[in-house]
Design goal:
This protein is α+β, with helices and mostly antiparallel strands and 327 residues long. It is built from 13 helices and twelve strands. A hairpin with a 2-residue loop joins β6 and β7. The structure holds iron/sulfur cluster.
């Protein structure tokens, strides 16, 4: 058994200062990822900084129409918030499609953003895995790569999908992530937060050492828009996505005048499909426009031996979601 020091923090400044004491420190919020991975010896913190006492549990509407979400707001509270249910429907649906009730009651907004991949080779602790052990190789390339492995944003070093549903909805909505660190506070655009694996799959996000996520600020809802999240998976509860889409559209009659589209389950990070959005705008909502958008969104897919089915499935996640949303 490995031991670690435990340090509860009362302010975000305290938390950052404590975390700075060790390069192997971890922040503890809901713990649904950290404790899992520590128990199987994949994460090995020597210092756990407990941030649960920080005042980061509020959801507030800002005067400019944006929604400010504290890092410690639970997934349940975010999904059930009246403003989220009415103005960010796809976000509420995405969160409720993930994990289980018990996990959503514990898991936090920041923790969901920071969750690690579900690749079994990453989690078994012994297989070659560039994410866990840089330079050791990738057992999933040439191994089993059917369900939690990507076709978009992959590299020769890692093909694991980002597991979050919530983040796919946030990628479509648009958001800023507020962080605090040794050099003060700063904002990161949500689409720049998660990194592609490239040559450094062990670097998963844009946080600098010791930085702490304090809030997420969602863009104001687009006037007159409707949104939805569709998740396709092996079973309909407590299962990660094989392909999913978050869609936001504005219709003028049957003409699409604005569109946002993001994908999950097929990509190494929450995947905003901007070219596909541009194809939709100005077209009549219908099979032809939806199919064109889906083709463009999946155009650069690079399948592996067992996940080529994700190319048509990803297209179906887009087409069905748009069809349901515009019906
Ligand atoms: Fe590791 Fe990524 Fe390869 Fe999985 S896909 S074994 S996480 S490097």
């Amino acid at each position: 058994m490995r031991t670690f020091a435990y340090s509860p923090a009362g302010t975000s400044g305290d938390a950052v200062a404590s975390h700075s004491r060790s390069v192997a420190a971890s922040y503890l919020a809901g713990g649904t990822s950290l404790l899992d991975l520590a128990k199987i010896d994949v994460m090995r913190p020597d210092l756990v900084v407990d941030i649960n006492r920080l005042p980061l549990k509020k959801i507030e509407k800002l005067s400019d129409g944006r929604l400010k979400i504290g890092a410690l707001v639970t997934n349940t509270d975010l999904a059930q918030h009246p403003v989220v249910k009415s103005d960010y429907t796809s976000l509420s649906q995405a969160i409720l499609s993930g994990a289980s009730t018990q996990l959503r009651n514990k898991a936090t907004t920041a923790g969901n953003i920071m969750q690690r991949v579900r690749c079994s080779y990453f989690r078994d602790g012994v297989s070659p895995c560039n994410k866990r052990e840089p330079g050791s190789g990738c057992a999933a390339i040439g191994g089993l790569n059917r369900s939690v492995h990507a076709v978009l944003g992959v590299s020769d070093n890692c093909i694991a999908t980002h597991p979050s549903d919530m983040c796919v909805a946030m990628a479509a909505i648009g958001a800023r992530i507020l962080v605090e660190g040794p050099e003060g506070q700063r904002e990161i655009d949500f689409l720049d937060f998660h990194l592609l694996p490239g040559d450094t799959p062990d670097r998963e996000h844009a946080l600098k050492p010791d930085e702490l996520i304090t809030h997420v600020i969602l863009d104001a809802p687009i006037g007159g828009s409707r949104s939805s999240y569709l998740k396709l998976r092996d079973r309909t509860s407590y299962q990660f996505s094989l392909a999913s889409s978050a869609a936001i559209v504005v219709l003028d009659g049957n003409i699409i005048t604005n569109a946002r589209l993001a994908l999950g389950g097929v990509s190494t990070k929450p995947w905003r499909a901007k070219e596909a959005e541009m194809v939709l705008v100005g077209q009549a909502a219908g099979p032809s426009a939806f199919a064109q958008a889906a083709d463009i969104a999946m155009r650069d897919a690079k399948p592996q031996a067992h996940n080529a089915y994700k190319v048509p499935l990803g297209k179906q996640a887009i087409i069905r979601n748009l069809r349901n949303l515009t019906a």
